Amino acid sequence: MIMTDQELKDLVASLAINSAKADARLEKADARLAKTDAQMAKTDAQIAKNSAELKEMFAKTDAQMAETDAQLAETDAELRAMFAKTDAQIAKNSAELKEMFAKTDAQRAETDAQLTETDTELRVMFAEADELLTKTIAQMAETGIRIDKVFKMYGGASNNHGAIAEEFYFNSLKHNPTLNGIKFDHIDKNITRSKGGIEDEYDIVMINGKDIFLIEVKYKAHENDLTQLLEEKSPNFDKLYPEYKGYNKHLGLASFHINDDIKKQALLNKVTILQRKGDVIETIPA
User: Rounded distance, CA 23 to CA 1, Å?
Assistant: First the structure.
């Protein structure tokens, strides 16, 4: 079949158009490939960055774990030292208790010997005690004090210790009613008053014409005993006993056992310390 010139021209034109379209498609494909290469390069860079960050993070984590391990080791050492110190303190306290019990046993033995030697004096003392008990019972009946309060006061072992301490300091101060160079006219024990919704009890009170001494007695003094004396009992006394307004008020804390920290706090707050030293009272003036 022979093509005419026109058909040949049309064919050439069609081929040129198809070639141009093919070239355009190739250019678009090249552009897409270039874009894809750029995206892959960007992805590779991101992967490299992420990898570096992960390595840095792992390095920091390893460092933190090492530091934590060191801190745990230090804490373990401190705990071991603390436990050792606690064990030593317990051993010391145990030794002190044994020594205290030994001294108490020796004092009891000495007291028993003295009681044996002074039987006549004891008989007189018992007679006086019976008379005093009779008077006390009469006073309790007059003032409406219930006898169960006495049982409650002396029922427990700790209360017995407190009663022993109160009796010791009361008898000692009754025998020599002088504190901090001040002589007192009379001494009261376990006085209680209730007024206006306030009620309080005072273990020992010493009074003269211008001075009054309030003494809190404990077998073993604690920090809250000092706090209660300063913040409750002292201000309550002013409200319950306005008749002593204008008196020079003194505060005292008497105890068989009192540590140095409580002594220091007491003296800083102008509270006199009374301690037992054998059969006498040792006073540390405020």
Answer: 31
Which residues are within 8 A (CB) of 259 and not within 5 positions of it... i.e. 6 or more apart?
Answer: 221
Angle between helices 5-117 and 119-143 (to 10 degrees): 120
Q: Has residue 244 been placed in a domain?
A: yes
Question: In this structure, is residue 116 part of a structural domain?
Answer: no
11 or 202: whose pLDDT is higher?
202
Q: Determine the average pLDDT of the residues in 29-50.
A: 85
- Total domains in the chain come to 1
Q: What is the mean pLDDT of residues 84-105?
A: 81
Q: Is the pTM of this model over 0.70?
A: no
CA torsion sign for 69, 75, 81, 84 is negative
| Strand positions, DSSP E, 196-245 | 198-207, 211-220
Q: Does residue 16 lie within any of the structural domains?
A: no
Residue 252: give its domain's CATH number: 3.40.1350.10
Q: Given the structure tokens 């006085």, which residue do they identify?
A: 191
Please indicate, yes or no, if residue 94 is contained in any of the structural domains: no
E strand intervals along the chain:
178-179, 182-183, 186-195, 198-207, 211-220, 248-257, 271-277, 280-284
Domain that holds residue 212: 157-284
